[in-house]
Known about the structure:
By secondary structure, this protein is of the alpha/beta class. It folds into two domains: 6-59, no CATH class; 72-317, Glycerol-3-phosphate (1)-acyltransferase (3-Layer(aba) Sandwich). The chain contains nine helices and twelve strands. The longest helix has 41 residues, at 63-103. The termini are far apart.
Amino acid sequence: MLEPGRGLEERNEHTKDSASLLMKQAAPTQLLSREIRITPGIFGNSGFSVGSRRNGNYAIISRFGLQILMRILRRLHYWWSLLVAATLLLIFGPPVIFAAWITRKHDLVYPWALFGARNWLRLSGAKVHVTGAEQLEPDQTYVFISNHRSYLDTATLFVYTGRRLGLLAKKELLNVPILGYGMGFVNVMAIDRSNRERARQTVEAATARIRSGRSFGVFAEGTRAKPGEFLPFKKGAFYMAAQAGVPIVPVAIKNTDQLMGKGTGEAMSGTIEMVMLPPISTTGRTTDEDVKDLVSRVHSLIGRELGVFENNPRSQTS
Length: 318
């Protein structure tokens, strides 16, 4: 015969063992919980709950569920950001470009382009923190060479170098309504990298503008890298700087791959860090070997600033 109360004790022990087993099984899902308690009345007459108590009710919240929710919010944020960009372009683009065309004053467009880029970043929840600007001479023309991981990079470089800037951009942007037509008004030049002769002509035209005193920004990887990646540099921007005889400013743009990374379809608010490293002179750099050395040096400096070479020094020469 069972001793009095022993059946109840065995039942409680069984309940505790069941709770322990379930928690071990749930460990891979990494349940988020504030309390784990054995309590009557949750699952039948006796059982357990995993969660936190609010107003007498127990909520079961898993990390998996939270991740799904956050991913949905990031996707909504992404589409919100694109909607803001399109709205700004549609509202301000046509009247400003038309006014510049009628009056033959292309300079009218540039302040509005700055306004649009700055406010797109702001309305997308991106703050920009710039360091290294004090190393630049106010009246010096530069070629700014940067890494590229996000749509946010273009607006960041365009707005925050502290000077009127031209850009080299992919030819595909010419197909974007309004934007493609307006690019020429703000000194954004489209380069066709699939056609070597056309690419050479674009680089020569950009070099002529640099000689005339216009600074240029170039994303030397040639395309956006995926989050965490850092691609080899194309040589065109380095030839531009060397032939024009102007210094190169290496620029490391951080965090944009987390805020709106390529291929993720997601976005979030945060702070973009733009680090302008000390200018590198191109005086006397006239040979192909000189340009190759510039490419390697600038790529290495930006890579170190991004932290991508810390554990793999051999990738510096890629």
